[in-house]
Amino acid sequence: MTCTDTITPAIVDAVYEEALDLTEEARTVFEADDWSPGVGSAGAETQIVLSREALRATTRLMHAMAWLLNHKAFFSGELSAMQLQRNGRLPSAQPESDPAQVALLDPLARLVIARSRNLFARVERLDKSWQLRSETDETSDIALGSGEVHQLRQKLGRAFASN
Predict the structure, then answer these.
(1) What pLDDT is stored for residue 163 in this prediction?
(2) What distance in Å separates the CA atoms of residue 83 and residue 149, rounded to the nearest whole number?
(3) Of 59, 67, 117, 134, which is least surrounded by CB within 10 A?
(4) Would the pLDDT of 12 be above 90?
């Protein structure tokens, strides 16, 4: 199950570096001590929106990071194709936020939220491409008899032949 013509280690590494930088930026923005929620219910509402959107953004980023790390591990030989297929899928995107509520937030927080959505969408496109290519590879592997099962059988045959 290779997909080197669609997704390369260089692509995964570049997106991973971007995700890592954005994760650090999100941590800095969402942990900022200078958030002044204001007085009354409007300030409390803004703080709730900030908490909810920070959780959504960091969840998107962590899911993207996990997907990217799994693919980095696959490309470096630390995960087999079967392990990647089992554990390397990207979870579904979260429901969209209410734009009116997001508008209550600081512009920097809104920017980080938007960038986390964009990054997740890019990783989602990579995942769909990977899954589509993987399905095509599996179909051709079965047809050609060159899948992992065939390779395992060859390995077992060699092991028993040497005894």
Answers:
(1) 56
(2) 14
(3) 59
(4) yes
